[in-house]
Amino acid sequence: MTILLAIDWLELWQKSWPAGLTVVSVGLLFAVGLLIASIRLKVVQDERIAKAFECLPNANCGACGFAGCQDYAQAVVGDPTLLGKCYPGGKKVADMIAQILNIQMSSPGALKRSVIHCRAHTADKTFFAKYQGIATCTAANAVSNAQACKFGCLGYGDCVRSCKFGALHVIDGLATVNYEKCTGCGACAKACPRNLFVMEPFSKENIITVACSSKENGKTTRQMCKVGCIACGLCAKNAPGMFIVQDNLARVDYNKYADDEKSNLALSKCPTKVIIRVGKNVPVSQEPAKEAVAAT
Question: Domain 111-279, what architecture?
């Protein structure tokens, strides 16, 4: 019996070992092939990418135009012309990455910060009816009678929810920027359904701007809002070039911006006080006009 079992095992071995050897050989062949492929196709990541990523604020806000800080770090190492696109990091981060890339950072232009072109608080606005829909600006903007002015801030805080830096609050019906925290990421500009936020260049810690977006004529604007631009043109007369009036709305041409006697005169002469300063260390005495002004 024992002899028969030994013979069976011997026959089994003689019949199976070629197949086993074939399997092992094929496995080794594939392993060697994969090893060679991994060596030849290995992608060596530029160590500067990791260093650049460490410099970034890791906010993943998208202001640079990329999906997140990791993507921007990879892009800026490959294309140094993208330096300075990280608005939350500002010049400090740009200089750090420039040093990693061993290049000289050119002098950057004025940093851009978010400016809301509206200054109407709840008491300044005219309402035809009480809006009782979904409490978002996007929903309210779809309703024609949420408030009389179709250009003004709706005050439901879509911009506040979009800001990752806590730089926005709705105060008495008006979105308000805290410039101590604003990084210029631009998220609020994307979130506002009325496009009230514009990324404006700050050549100084505070700048002059026109806090209105209404394109109605002066008479209609006065009926809808106590602090709207009536397109009287006094600003353009006092500071020609810097101020322009178009489509019933005054605007600052920041390519010709000058914080001088003329621009300050335009600010002080504005009948509705819609020309204001925004930014850090703004004077407190920026009260809306208390008396009605005749539209021209």
Answer: 2-Layer Sandwich (3.30)
